[in-house]
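Hello K.,

You asked for the raw outputs rather than the summary table, so here they are, unedited. I folded two proteins back to back in the same session to keep the settings identical. This is the first:
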Amino acid sequence: MKLHPVVAAVTDRIRERSRDSRDTYLQRLGALAERPRGADRMGCANVAHAFAGLPANDKLRIVAERAPNIGIVTAYNDMLSAHAPYAGFPELLKDEARRQGATAQVAGGVPAMCDGVTQGTAGMELSLFSRDVIAQATAVALCHDVFEGALLLGICDKIVPGLLIGALHFGHLPMVFVPGGPMTSGLSNNEKAKVRELAAQGKVGRAELLEAEQKAYHGRGTCTFYGTANSNQMLMEAMGLHVPGSAFIHPDTGLREALTREAVRTVLGITRAGGRFTPIGRLVDERCIVNALVALLATGGSTNHLIHWVAVARAAGLRIDWNDYAELSAVAPLIARVYPNGSADVNHFQEAGGPGFVIRELLDAGLMHEDVLTVREAGLREYTRVPQQAAMAVQGAAPAGQALAWRDTGPSGDLAVLRPAADPFSPTGGLKLLQGNLGRAVIKTSAVPPERHVIEGPARVFDGQNALLHAFGAGELERACREGGGSLVCVVRWQGPQANGMPELHKLTPPLAVLQGQGWRVALVTDGRMSGASGKVPAAIHVSPEAAVGGPLARLRDGDRLRLDADAGVLQALVADEEWNAREPAAMPPQDIEDNGHGLGRELFAGFRRNALTAEEGACTWL
């Protein structure tokens, strides 16, 4: 299938825009790749320290037999249900490496915070910047410089982007990401959302709300809605960085163990000793990035990736911006409906065909580059297939690590969840770029009903999310809707990277959804983020430049009439130009302890806030 002209044009533009930085990156990568292996290059004391803790046979393999040594970077902790299964992965990976005549070492661990735990708390102010901490920790792990490749264990929101950014700074090494899989389906996401809205109205108490939440989040594995964590997994498949089809296989299955072992064989196959040398820095090129963006848009994935994948691209010497996303969104059909842009969860998504179906449809429609490197010899087309255990493994005739087979995905198993690219849910992806005198912002439209794509009404300006929650609880927002003729645009400012680390504002969804459910026309405008699970209320997010650096949101006043038009791509304060231009931006007020988080680690991130780039530049702190 011929590549779609818009996909080709965006790819060419990224390539041209990035020519100098990408060439510099590849030259550095090439020079590092040409060095002798670490165990041969380093001094004897360095080598002795590196392998002192290994069993004697492993030392022999590395030093005398010159076998490949694979570094393991793990984000294991059991605070994250998604990462709890990783507890036993290192020993499994080491065992498989030995079976293959190689060795593996845990090079280091990276921090991994749970946004579900910190949502709406002071800890959320550390969330976005934890991505760059993870990237730094990945670099610390790999700086031992004695590895021929690496396996990266991470799944959730900031963890995969952080691992990938760190990995790309060691782009001369082959690397494979190793997922853990989702938890089984519990209370449906729609039912959970209903209980949250009832709680916001005071119609159910804490006991009922807690019961619902625990039924939804109930076991080991990734949360089952299509938020940032599961969007990460979709993108890893589209970029060819997983063992094909491994994203959404439950942790406690023989198939999961087989796929985990296969990750070892896969990374060994792309080392220099394996004969098909494929360092991650060459694999992740402009075509690979575009494939990721198209897959994100076609599945209605998390808005957080409008920040994270800009940073990922920069780590590979590539420059992308929101115009690239918007142009791809205009031609990428929405072919998946998974909560929050549908009622299905990721287990239903997997059963209907999962990433394999999505990638096949996009490749066949000319919307993804097929001529890309992946960690597998067969290329991206292999990612259109579904893994399964061969019959001999079920009968116990072969070890789990030798028992994998892949089958064709076939047609959609549920047309309410996955549709062909020729007959999509929508002809365009779930993202729009907004521009106007309030700056540049983005809106996720895939979960917003078309009749709510345009909202015009008076502004109610808040200096933090708790102020909005208090106003809702006091009945002020319902009163403002009534006085505003049925419409209200809530503005929450001072939420950008330099202000307070750009927290997610997911706790604002239930009260705004309540107002919307009562028939009012409401919208949110903010320089902060929304969770990957948000969407039913129209929200212009990531407004740049942010208020803290004098951005336009700092000029807004209560009562200003605002227009959010997702169809026309407009975000505008309907204030006369003369008056608007004459206004002095407000100064960011001191935040109270509820919003500020002093004493809970926030002070340690002052340098991150000071150095952060804009949201559209990936909110990077390391450039």
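The second followed immediately with the same parameters:
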Amino acid sequence: MLGVYAIDISKKVLIITLLIFAVLTASFTFTHNMQLSNFLELEQADTLENVERVQNSVATEQGYLDYIVQDWACWDDTYRFIDDKNQEYINVDLQNQTLAGINVNVMIFVNNSGEVVYIKSVNTHTAEEMPVSDDLLAMIKDGSLLTTGDEDSISGFVLLEEDPMFISCHPILTTTYEGPSKGTLIFGRYFDDELLDSFKRVTRSSLLMYRADENMPADFQTKIKNASENPDRIIVEPLNEDQIAGYFGLKDINGDLALLIRADFPRELYRHGERTLNYMYWFLILTGLMTGVGVKFALDKLFISRLVEIDDFVTKVRSEKDLSKRLDLKDNDELYRLSREINGMLNEIYLAEQELKAQAREKKVLLDSLNELVVFVSPELKIIWANKAALEYMNMDLESAMGVCLKATPGISGPLVEFMYLEHIFTSEEKKSGEFTAKDGKVWFFQATPVTDDQGKIIGVLQTCRDVTERKEAEKLLQEKQVAEVANRTKSEFLANMSHELRTPLNSIIGFSDLLYEKIYGDLNEKQLKAVGNISRSGKHLLNLINDILDLSKVEAGKLELEYKEFELSSKLNSIKNLLSPIADRKMIEVQIQVDESLNTIRADEARFAQIMYNLLDNAIKFSKENGLVEIDAKRKGDTVEITVKDYGIGIKVEDQSKLFKPFSQIASFSSKKVQGTGLGLALVKQIVNLHGGYIWFNSRIGEGSTFAFTIPINGNKRTEGDSEVEASNIAGKAEDSES
């Protein structure tokens, strides 16, 4: 029976071998033809790549000419030359050797009226002057080569009677590419035989070029129509068995076909590939035939007999159900690996069982690692399983907890069961979640999810509980913070409104006290005059305080708007210095101002800028020692101006530095008690700097003095409003960091 089985397989192997040989022969034939076609495609692709290299060389020449004409046209000397026709410019920059050095045959300067200001034509090889083509002059006259705007340019070919010419035209602008245009600068380079030979050397190809306005050879005539319709397209066709050619066109300045170029290449790739494929085809046919015969005998000896052995083993194991047996085959081949897999399959049965146990342990470890309380209960509300956190909370182990009714467990479970109506979940089959407050005050988030079997029947409920007490407290703090912020804005608006109401009567008090002090209504005795002076000074001090409160309230209420204007920085700093010079002179303090030469004007709110500098300089003078020095320095930092005010006075203690820039806060150092102040000055300075989109910082050492510095944009009006708000917010954060 086994012999008959083996003979049947042997016949089948023979038939399969013959079929495989037939299929392989057909495949070899098909592959031969397909590969031959692929070689044709490779030849086409290789030719296209070579032609594109030629195109790139031509485009590079045109690009170089465009770059050179732009470089010359956007030059202040050229810009002036159109008006003054400066002979020195001609003698220095327009020599024959100059044009030959930059490989330009023709250079023409034309003004906006279309008149030729200057023209020169040279031989790039000999640097000798040549006559200018009449065709070029005609195209200048009819405007074909003239630009029409500051951003207009012309680039391409023109067909002259002598030779085709690369042409590039650019408007004449200043060195900074600004107009208005003074005219057009025209550069030209002849596309002659010498230039064509240089392309041949660079691209290592054979090139033929014909003009579109002249008669062409027969093969060019068939391509002229396609090239005219699409000059950018490359046409590749074999010329004969040994050569293949690629045709491409070049446009004139109007976008029409000007030149047609053919690049010839040898067909070595295709011929070599064809010979190689023929050799391989017959070699594979012969190899396949010999392989088929050998495979037939090898399969009979090495495969069929061993396959029968495997079949007998599998049948025996299945009949005896003895999984301890193992199949033993020699040789490291597919059949050996098959026997190894059969042996491995017997081991997998055992390993699968172990894996299931391991997965159960992993799930338990995963659930035990959760901080949430997880309990799985039966429809009778008895505990089936609980994770480690739940067991610790109930002070029970899993063995003692299993089977216990959830209502009887200690902790939150009993009241929670009543709150969740677990019995209702088993009947409604709906998931339920919510929050629950235990007797100890803790807030718990719970969720109960029904669990069903394959038939959709509920077999239990998975209950999870998470302590959210801290989150609830954080939410409460956030709400209180929001309420406080609203109250603060309300306070700021109230202060702003009240400051307006207070200034009106206060201005009247100051005005009438000044009239009395100046004796407009009659003479006063010395005591009366001193009292009226005190009233005026106190009123003005109170008015300054109210103004500071009003400004600070406007900022906090978001109502302070900046009025940007351009002003001279050095002049403004000197005016602030002059304004405070009486205070400085009383203490014999020298104020020095240093401004970068590149900083002429800035754009900001001039009045608020003066308010910033007044406060900083006033503080520096107040806290400086007699015969001291205060330095003001203004530097450019990118698009911003950085201004520092440095004194060598008493300095600020470390414990007092946190009070700076806070409203109504004053440092408590011994020396500072001699100086009056409201504590609003630096707070206003910080807010105004931030509104400008800048930030402020300071450095101070006790006994060595203090340095206050701030930056604001030089051109503050160039940012959009939204960007300014975002940047001011970001910079305010930076300022708070630097204060700390």
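Confidence is low (pLDDT under 50) at residues 1-6, 669-675, 719-740.

Happy to rerun anything if the numbers look odd on your end.

Regards,
P.
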